[in-house]
Structures are given as structure tokens and as C-alpha cells.
Here is the input.
Amino acid sequence: MKQISNARDAVTCHEETTMATVTLTSEQLALVRTTLPRVIVLACPGSGKTETLAARVRHLIDLGVPSQQILVLSFSEKAVGVLKKRLPSDVAAKTFHAFGLGLVRKEARAGSRIPALLTPKESVHLLKSAIKRCPKASRSAKKKTGIDLSLPHEVQRLADFIKRCNGSDDLARDLAGNSESGFADYAEVLVELRTVRLAYEKTVDRAGGMDYPAMLRRANSVIDNAPLHFQHVLVDEAQDMSVEQARLLSSVARRVANVTVFGDPKQAVYGFIGGKLADFGEVLRDAVTMGLTRSFRLTHQNAALANAVLASSEHRVIGDRHGVTPSLLRCASAIEQETDVVELVRRLSAKGVPENRIAILGRTKAQVRQAENALLAADYETASAFSPRLYDHVFKALDVLKLVQISLATAKAGKAPNRAWRANRLRDIVGGRLPRKVLDDCLRSLAKAARIPSFEGRYVAATRIYLGMMKATGNASSNLAAELGRWQTTSQRFQRVDQLRAHIANLSRRPKVVTSTIHGSKGDEWDHVIVLGVTDGSIPFYREIKRRDIEEERRLFYVAVTRARKSLHLFHAPFHHAPSRQQFSNASRFLTLKVKRTLETG
Here is the structure.
């Protein structure tokens, strides 16, 4: 591939468009105005990639390209949502799956029957039928692992697994080999599950339907004959493309003269779900490569750390301004790490930093949850990227606790409880009917909970009653138990329900410290970033060390250290991985001498 380098002088764009007030660097302006038909844009973190893409689209429209002849593709609904806010409303911005679905439907309108896109409920129903037609595989799975595929929750889990695998046996192995995927127990029965999946795919075809995983496969089978009216195709976040998405784009590129691909191979961290495109040139073999090397997010100090992490002399990141040196804090234990994280948040808050401009990132959800619990104990609430807060449910659980407290007062007064009133109140709390047996069990549990001596114990009992009712009504979200359990320690400080309710309500209204896995943080930025567990076994993760495949883990660390606009704080502490019962204590191998030179250590 050819290379073009551009100076990084600030240039104001004077196009007669909405971009007239936007100041672009010479690199960005070169991309906006390029007449090259095939371009690969290597964009560093915080380089204004999406803004440059949007400016490019507006420039094309100014040149007379009809907006209906411009297509923008991206990896996820989240990325497309961002694009739609910045692009003219009549420019098509779609995920690869949505684009693929449109191709399949156009091909069907031209002759064959239009496949119906299955709802999740319909997919599960057809999967149930497929499982019934695979009795041998089902018996084998149950004998090997105890998993009963006929149970409703196991059917749903298998449906999620099939969707994530997207028809790939390699992805199935990767997911089953990931202890945090929720599918680790599938590792021994992948052959049986493949049999079920193939039966399910046949069932879907016979039903005249198409599910999410089939969209791209079907699109790739029809694209060569599909009508394409686009003059320009632009792709955002190209490093996250799966093999099927890359095939689809390659087919599009054979039909469309002008294709521009934006991405950063150094941030390719979704190999575990199929995003393994290391070289964009595999898709656009005749493309010219241009770069966006200046990061408006990173300081010179944070950029130096990012460059040291990858130890690459090619396409180095250039910071935008002077800042503070990133820090590395060594902790003797995970508890000490949590304590120090709380103290750091307290110091930042005391300086006037809004809590929602602080982010805590970890390799695993368990690490992040430990920090969340420590912060909550110190009266700092968190906004989790992977576990939404369920305050409405917490307050309803407190309504159940109020009933427990009333039962306690009634018993102390020597009065008999009003069964009918309590039953009606429980129905009101869950907002619907309850099976008679469930209601009877809940009423007995209320009486037992009233005899528990501590307020904390009564809180725990009340949350169990509420969780049971929600499961009975089919409205229990997957993280409900965890969300109710978060407040158990806090409940120790109170003796009255109204006081606990007021405390939770107050925290819910305040700005919250953001918490996320590193994977979930990709594409986001905060003023101050804390990275937990920079420890071998955590970063890089022990499983990848065992496989001798840590380059994606290095890129994941790169993503973590490039999220901060102002200060970056790395924490090294012993890491205990409960699922594998392993303990790790050595600092991450990514903390090389070159990396350490860019850090203040303590």
C-alpha cells in the first residue's frame, strides 16, 4: 500500500457548508478533500475520526454528490447512533447487519419470498423445536455436563450463544474457553451444540425466516447480483469488522468505485467475537493509506505512554498539549487497591472534579464490581457500563421491607397480622397478579423476616421476597439480584426504611463515577481514568498468557491508557481469579522499561 504523510498544522476549512466553522488539521483537511477513490485512514485515539468522516460526507455533498448515493457503515448500533447525530439526516448510516438485511430483502422482492426477520421470541421458539429434534445430542449434553437443554432458561442461553457465534465454530470455541462469557460450561459439548445449531438453521429456513446471525451470510450470497446505487461508501471503526463483515465490504468495494475505511488496527480488541481484521489492505488491496496521528484527547505524557505500550515506531500517536505524568501505584493487596481508589476519587472530587468525569476500568467485571462496592461504602455511587442501575426495583424492595417492619411492629404490639391487606400490598408492589402458592410463600416469609433481629438481615430477607415475586411474574432482569445486593452493606447504617430510601435516592441523583470493563470503554473518554489490576494474569489475562496469544491483550491495554483527557492512574495489585482459583502477583509484563520511563511510580 502507498503511504501519504501530512503535516499537523491547524487549518481552518472554508468550505461553504456547515463545516465552515470547524477547524481541521492539515491531515484532516487532506482526507476531507481527497480525490483518491480508495483510502485507508489509520486514525489514532481521539483524532477526531468521526468528525473527519462527517466532514468528508458534507464535502462530497457540496461537490454535488447526491446524499442518497453516500453510504456510511459501522460496527455497532452505538457507533451508528453517534454518526447519525453528526451526518446530514438524508445520508444512510447503518450497521453491517442492517445493510445486509436490506440487500436480502431487495433480492427477495426481485423474485423469491421475502424472509421474515425473526424476533428474539420467535428464534427461541424455533430453537426449542430444533432441540426436540436432536434427542441424542441433548442426552449427551446432559450426561456430560448436567445441562438440560429443554429448560426455558437453557434454551434462552443457547439462543444467546448461537447469536454470539454467528455461525462460526471458531467463535464457539473462543466463547466456551472464556471463563467470563457465561458459556464456559459449553466447552465439553460443542459438538452436541453444533448439531443443535445446524438443526435450528434448517428449522429457520423451513419457516421462511432469517435470524440475526444469518443476515450477513445471506447478504454475502446475494450481493454480487444486488442493485447498488452508491457512489461513495465510508466505513467507521473498521478494525472491529468480523470476517463476514469484511467479506461483505470486499464485495461492495468491487462494485463501488469510492471506498474510504476509517479505523485503528491498534484498537482491534474484539477477536473473541470475530473481529480479527489485522490488515485493512486485505479488503482494499488498491488503497492509499493516510493517517490521523494527532490526538486531541491525549496529553503529550499520555501519548508517550501509549506509544511505549505498543513499542511501535509506525503511526505513533502525537499528543495535543502538555499535561501531568501518568502514575503507577503498587498495592500490597486487592483491598488496599480498593482503598486507594476510593482515596483518589475523594481527592479528585475535593478538587472540584465532577464524579462523572472519572472512570474506573478493569479487565474483568469482578474487579470493577469490587471497586464499585468500595466506592458505595464511601457514599460514591457508580454508573456501570455493563450492569444498569435499577433504582425503581430497589425502592420496591424497600416497600417490601416496609411490610416487614410493619409485621415486626404488629407482633410487638401483640396483634394478629392482616393477611388480606398484606397480600394486596404485595400485589401492588409487583404491579400484577401473583400465583397463589407464591403469594402464600411470600406471606410466610414476611412473618419470618419480622423475627430477624438486625435491620440488615430484614433488608436481605425483603430483597429475597421481592426477587421471588419478580421471577414469578417473569420480570426479573438478569442483574436484579446483584442490584438489590449492592445495598446490603449500606443498610447496616440504618434502622428505618425511610432513612435508607432517602439515602439511596440522594445518591441516585448525584453525578456518578463511571465503571466499565476495558472492552466496554472503547470509543469513550473521561478527564480522569483509573485502570485496575495492571498485573500479569489480569492484564494480560491469564488465559491468553497460557495460549501464548497476548497481542490483543496488549492492544486492550493500549485502549485503556488512551481513554484519559487529563490524568491517568494505573494500579498494580495481586489479582485473584476466582473461577480458575488462581492468584497472580507479578506486575504486568506490559510494564516494560520503556513504559516505566513514562510513569511516576509509587
About this structure: Confidence is low (pLDDT under 50) at residues 1-21. The first helix runs from residue 26 to 33. The longest strand covers residues 564-572. The two ends are 44 Å apart (CA to CA).
